[in-house]
């Protein structure tokens, strides 16, 4: 409730400027002059008192500055030069990917979008990168690109003295290339290399004619990758969207390119969008992020869970992570939720299967009635409801169909993964420190022209072909996945399906026919 009021006030106070500048500028202004920012900026900064003449003069100057820049730099929310479409690729860990263009001449990378980490990195000057020789490895036809510093005329080295260089322990001298190294939660999955500075190609969305924007960002030249990055996830780079200073959203807002906010939507058919500078709408539901100042993450609180007709009183905090395919829950919440689900399901439970990361799986007859499967809804801190559209996953092997409660039991970490985000647009409002969400199919407004239909055609989801356990392929994928992120497991071994059951039936049937 209070956040709604704050949002209203923000809009009212900036109203006079809206006409000529739209959301972006209004944000920027708020950002530079908000009381919070003044406090954070400390005593050295000579901030004018709010409402004073000086305040408005400075505002106006700032206005002019941005206005001038706006004419050639941006005119509305920003997105990647290849468009704001994202698409889920089942064979690559069920994550959402998009195409980004880096450097001069521009080189395109198909990167996974990850709110659970901060650094943007691409394969580069490879010591060990995902194989480029065997594209069939990814069951998805795209070419892997490899960045190199001397391949781009606009690349600059980031030295150890740069403020974004955090790994200084490994620096020999301040003039050296800044090294980086990031390990991820997925077992043995990491990237390391050096930081570089180059142009990320963006464009504005509001105007009829596309205005291209060149933004300098810092990213990792990933020379050594391990684990999932070598095959089942993000072989062509990972786009960290976190809250730390090094993430691209942080750099873009810091440099005045956009409001400190972005949105992502996740359509039920696997298509999505990403829009930088998007602050959402009045009628969205909201919940605050729990910020740990030492390591800020998109950490939210769930107060209550409703499973079918039952209220499960078990609150928890969790990372809100687009870079994790399935939701992970630790006890007690996991047990309470899954037992409540189980008690309401009418289908026959299947014996445990070590190849499936989910514990609660059931037989599904072809005439199953989807409305009998218990629904799932989360009450977030602040009271906002998030009705989970896809709490289950349908898995089909050659001769049977089953469905599982798509939650992985975790030892400690709670993660709201991408399967809980389907059917919504989420706004990561980093200025207000809230998560906003609203039902959205990603198609309401715009025409779609940019995503490859190959990846989203429901009749062909997923591109991974069914592999019957026991044959060579199955063993190979099994081996590959045992030491990688569990969440991508199902996709390698089975035809899996995220869609609502009806579509899923269609998809499975068609896949069997093909
Ligand atoms: C990007 O998405 C927004 C809405 O989410 C839409 O208004 C805009 O037109 C889209 N731009 C492109 C190029 O698709
Ligand atoms: C690129 O840089 C490497 C050193 O990192 C150098 O050995 C190589 O010759 C350069 N390649 C070109 C084409 O300039
Ligand atoms: C989320 O925040 C809570 C409280 O601030 C903390 O206890 C918890 O460890 C955090 N969770 C994650 C996944 O970072
Ligand atoms: C499914 O179950 C619901 C509730 O029991 C019922 O109203 C509906 O008619 C059923 N649908 C089908 C297709 O059997
Ligand atoms: C989806 O794929 C099927 C089978 O290949 C094809 O017949 C259909 O036209 C495709 N639909 C779209 C929208 O591309």
TrEMBL record:
It comes from the Eukaryota. GO terms for molecular function: aspartic-type endopeptidase activity. It is found in: Cell membrane. GO terms for cellular component: plasma membrane. It is a lipid-anchor. Gene3D superfamilies: Acid Proteases (2.40.70.10). Residues 1-22 form the signal peptide. The active site is at residues 114, 321. Residues 96-438 form the Peptidase A1 domain. Keywords: Aspartyl protease, Cell membrane, Glycoprotein, Hydrolase, Lipoprotein, Membrane, Protease, Signal. GO terms for biological process: proteolysis. InterPro entries: Aspartic_peptidase_A1, Aspartic_peptidase_AS, PEPTIDASE_A1, Peptidase_aspartic_dom_sf, TAXi_C, TAXi_N. It holds the Pfam family TAXi_N. Belongs to the peptidase A1 family. This is Peptidase A1 domain-containing protein. It comes from Solanum stoloniferum.
